[in-house]
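Narrative summary of target 7.
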Amino acid sequence: MTLARQRVSVLDVDATPLTVAELTAVLNRYVAEGRTRTVVGHNLHSVTLLHSDPGFRQFYEQSDVVLIDGAPVLWLWAKALKVGEVRGRIMDYRLGSTDWIPALAGVDGLERIAVLGAGAAANAEAVARIQGIVPHAQVNGMPGEDWNAELEASAVDWLSGLRPQLVLLGLGMPLQEQVLLRRLDTLPAAVYCAVGGAIEQIAGVQKLAPRWVGRLGLEWAWRFVLHPKRVGYRVLGEPWVLLGLLIRRRLRRRR
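Modeled conformation, tokenized:
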């Protein structure tokens, strides 16, 4: 099954905008198929990486689902739509990992889930909470803190022995995408979802913004207030880097 891509022309990227219900239906098909699939999401950070890192671009271009995670990406996508092209509210198509993970109970036949990433305490708490969401499934976790080549090899062996149907990989961007790009061919067939900091968010280590803040597209401000050192560059500096990359890209095309 190939999902149609839609263009976010201002940012020069493609996405597969889905609601929670639509993604759940897609995951139902993917789990039933039992093939290797990848699910990623676009925000301004991923768009910047796509335009600056050829390997990152390659991974996104070959991924099966590219959700819209960031509000600016959503608004720029919606701006080009015609009336009637989207059913329901535009904000329903903004899917961060913590928006759709609580709906995993609706994925038929989902019996084995792997949670890879974050520190030991956060990973264990996230596993427990996901187990509560999908009580009929076996949920296993492996921390990903201080990731290195040895830990990566251990993770590959762990996944190969576990043979999960769904993998939530939260190593942060772009590390999680780099790992999947170099290891996907040797990993067992599963739906691999790059979820960034969602493991810590599900565990409660990172405090989620109230949903009304997300609906207004102000999660970046919430994160900046709570974690200025962690997200300061991404909030204040990276948009200017992206603007420069997009201008340079357009100038090259004109030449």
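The radius of gyration is 18 Å.
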